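JOB MANIFEST
job_type = single_chain_structure
chain_count = 1
residues = 287
[input]
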Amino acid sequence: MPFAQIKDRALVSVSGPDAEHFLQNILTTDLDALGRGQAKPGALLSPQGKILFDFLVSRAGDDGFQLECRADIADDFVRRLMLYRLRAKAEIAKQDQVLVTVAWGDDSTASRSDSTALSDTRFQDITVTRTYGGEAQDGSDPNGWLNMRIGNGIAESGSDYQLGDAFPHDVLLDETGGVGFKKGCYIGQEVVSRMQHRGTARRRVLIASADSPLPAAGTELTVAGRLVGTLGSVGHRTGLAIARIDRVKAALDAGEAITAGEIPVRLAIPAWVKYTFPEGAVSAEEA
């Protein structure tokens, strides 16, 4: 079974009698739908609906939760949670530099006897598990994990977008179960709900491919010099991109080349998502 060990992660624990109510009122994830043994994506937003922190949340103990996030944002994340806690009976703590072991395969090969393994619910067509702690092991395949994320269109902050610069729809939290549209209010909920109900999300994750090695993450995607998106994670000839799907569709309809730097690229919607390229898309020049 292939696996990768990730070292730049941290765990933020929130526990206590008010922990679930407190988190349910501020995070995008619907905790009512979070089962034991699951790690669901989510975000803490600004009031304007932009992602300030992204994470994977899971249940821990009788009344607790653990939120796995990038190690470099963990301190700021804890401070923001403390700011919102007010009088809630919830304890917030951080565990630095947690070793995360990610394994993937079909249902038979990815199942683990370890009861602490969590199902990473972002992945639709393959079983992916995450385990926290333990020792470093030989055989870790970080490139395999990168290619897994790219092939499934799973974007993460830092690698694919910058915090404070993306809405949940931009990075598919609406598609991966990271936004609870039936739950009550949370920070930024009004903006996110409006985008959902009006169908106004235009920046989306796409899978980029080319006949030669792609340039580095952050390279702009252009059509005749006009910006349509930006490359994220890159694995040789494939990568993730966040792009305006209306502008991409207009370029495809017009037969215009899409390039990353000087490299012609093909952009495709991940196979498992519900959104499609819009009909009657305007050109990048008109938008």
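[summary]
The longest strand covers residues 91-105.
Confidence is low (pLDDT under 50) at residues 108-113, 281-287.
exit_status = 0
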